[in-house]
User: Which sequence fits this backbone?
């Protein structure tokens, strides 16, 4: 199956995607991670991407689409993808439909995590990522402990774009450009609304139930 995780910045898409990858043997496609790798490698493209991300702006579609083509054309990931952070606008959604059909695949369902602005801001400001294993934690809602994280707190880092000004800009961008595609997927009967305010385990249980029914 191919699944899309949808929701505003800080909705918990990355955390749920990490759990679903293990449980359903999927491959996570996070365009954010792919773009940050460009920044980390200090390429010309990475420098351009860094400026856009720090301003809370979206990276141009042509850059994103080429990254997606590389994934969909890889037979190793055939019908085993979970998209985290893509598509982010209607043009990208339409393009994704075209590409999955081109590579003889399909989108099985779209999961939309619903969270209000106040919770989003706190989630993002508290977000921490392990630079060693890649797991995502939150100092307010899901802190790193010896039980859930063996790498240790010294590897925990915060993204440079996780600040008040950028968060508000990203939420505005989401509402203006990304939210409308929910109607697009609703018309295709692919959309499932998820209560993103629930606990991580509860959200995972709800999503797992939906995906298990698709497998059956």
Assistant:
């Amino acid at each position: 199956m191919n699944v899309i995780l949808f929701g505003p910045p800080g909705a918990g898409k990355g955390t749920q995607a990490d759990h679903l990858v293990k449980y359903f043997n999927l491959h996570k496609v996070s365009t954010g991670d792919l773009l940050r790798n460009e920044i980390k490698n200090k390429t010309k493209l990475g420098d351009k991407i860094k400026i856009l991300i720090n301003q809370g702006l979206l990276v141009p579609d042509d850059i994103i689409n080429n990254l997606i083509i590389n994934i969909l054309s890889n037979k190793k990931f055939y019908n085993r993808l979970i998209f985290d952070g893509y598509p982010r606008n209607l043009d990208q959604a339409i393009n994704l439909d075209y590409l999955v059909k081109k590579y003889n695949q399909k989108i099985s369902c779209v999961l939309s995590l619903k969270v209000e602005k106040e919770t989003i801001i706190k989630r993002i400001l508290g977000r921490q990522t392990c630079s060693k294993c890649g797991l995502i934690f939150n100092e307010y809602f899901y802190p790193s402990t010896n039980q859930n994280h063996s790498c240790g707190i010294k590897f925990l880092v915060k993204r440079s774009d996780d600040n008040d000004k950028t968060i508000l800009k990203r939420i505005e961008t989401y509402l203006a450009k990304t939210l409308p595609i929910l109607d697009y997927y609703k018309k295709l009967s692919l959309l499932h609304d998820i209560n993103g305010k629930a606990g991580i385990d509860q959200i995972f249980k709800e999503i797992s139930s939906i995906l298990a029914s698709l497998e059956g």
